[in-house]
Amino acid sequence: MPLIQVDLRRELFDSSHDQISRALQTAGEEALGTPTDDLFQVFRPRDEGELKFDPTYNGVDRRDMVLIQVLAVHMHPVSAKQAFFRKVVEHLGEVGVRPADIHIALAENGFEDWYAGRA
Amino acid sequence: MPLIQVDLRRELFDSSHDQISRALQTAGEEALGTPTDDLFQVFRPRDEGELKFDPTYNGVDRRDMVLIQVLAVHMHPVSAKQAFFRKVVEHLGEVGVRPADIHIALAENGFEDWYAGRA
Amino acid sequence: MPLIQVDLRRELFDSSHDQISRALQTAGEEALGTPTDDLFQVFRPRDEGELKFDPTYNGVDRRDMVLIQVLAVHMHPVSAKQAFFRKVVEHLGEVGVRPADIHIALAENGFEDWYAGRA
Lengths: 119, 119, 119
Hints:
By secondary structure, chain A is of the alpha/beta class.
């Protein structure tokens, strides 16, 4: 039951939220084995001044920030996390999001830390 | 000092935010022993397309998503977390929120990870 | 790569978001050794009823809530976290934010849990 939270420019949300949603879900399916219907995402469109970032940190040409937070059960090896990041970059690229503009932060909890519609 | 974050449809926020707030706080009091005045909540009303979920994942008839994130100190046994989920479902039910529409994700940190108005 | 998320009253965001951004980044530089250009922040302006808190919990005179969430790699000793809280209070004070109105929650993950513009 990974939970995905996305803060992004409102214009990008308006033009592409369904495609971004599918790109992220596909990346989870391919790299983490997330079932297709295990879909829990919240998109938070951001207005001027709400996203703050440095344009060159980590040696890239950053022009925007698509902030993706993933909360997932602690069970994925580092290699699967790295594959997930690659897949997110690949599939968001197909939607026109530049790799340099993607920022992902993953956090973990336990199986016992979720309620998904029934006990 | 649990922090509660709720992303929910704007219409539900407008009609019921105070009742939902009380329901969540009551659940924490009853299941986790949270003091009544230990209240820190943020509600984030969401518009069309911002909440994405599958209508049947986990074998339920899901028609909406009330996304509740709890950040709490790592100290509660699994049984208390399960009791908390049950109490949330019970008290949100009294406000008219369907159990299938509730999604809860709990994450944990340490006592030393909080600042609450004074050092 | 600490990620900083701030939920705050819209009026305070409008008047002071750049100053608050700098205050938080400066606190990270001084207490956690965060590089100046390691800047990833999201501000989420909140409207009436969206921030819920008790005015006196923890023995303070709380009139507002500036909610600051920090996600950082697990590597800072408790003393550095405490220094960070003090520095946030100091620098936000210079912007006119009262210590009693500040609420900080820190959560941690691993080095392998980040993607920042490139693999």
